[in-house]
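hiii, so i know i said id send this last week but things got crazy w the move. better late than never?? heres the sequnce for the chain we talked about at the cafe, plus the structure i predicted for it. fair warning i was half asleep when i ran it
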Amino acid sequence: MKQANIFYKDLLAGILTESDSGYEFRYLPEYLSLETAKAVSLTLPLQEEVYTSPVLFPFFDGLIPEGWLLDVALRNTDISTLDRMSLLLLCCKDCIGAISIVPIEEKEESHV
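okay and structure toks below
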């Protein structure tokens, strides 16, 4: 499972998750309680309910670079262009606009 914190400007707005069943995006209650809270996208208006999709939400997929810029990003990785979540995590920490995607590192399970 891959996860990312989704920031609107400097505020942690929500969490995007990829699992075997697809994708989920959820706004955090703390963010929703702010008077200044803004939706990360017109296609993902503010709501308490979780958004689900079998494919990466078009808004997030649209943040991934294309063409030569994608080639530059992929040059030193072994990520497939079909692995959209990994590309999003790799390329979109400092994207143009108000949204930032910051990977949530998987916790290593301790074996005793």
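btw The chain has four helices and five strands. thought thatd interest u
miss u guys!!
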